[in-house]
Amino acid sequence: MRRVSFGRTGVSVPAVSLGTWGYSGANMNNGVSVGWTGHDDELARKALVRAAAEGIDHWDTADVYGSGRSEALIGEMWGDVRRDTIFLATKVGWDKGGHDHFYHPDVIRANFERSLRNLQTDVIDLYYLHQCDFGPNDEYFDDAIALVRRFREQGKVRFIGLSDWDARKIMRFIDRVEPDVVQPYRNVVDDDFAESGLRDWITKHEAGVAFFSPIMHGLLLGKYEAPVSFPEGDFRRNVEGFGSAAVIARMQRARKQVEARWPLHPQPVLHALIGALLADAPTGCVLLGQRNPTQVVSAAAVGEALKPEDVAWIREIYREG
Question: Fewer Cβ neighbours under 10 Å: the N or C end of the chain?
Answer without folding.
Answer: C
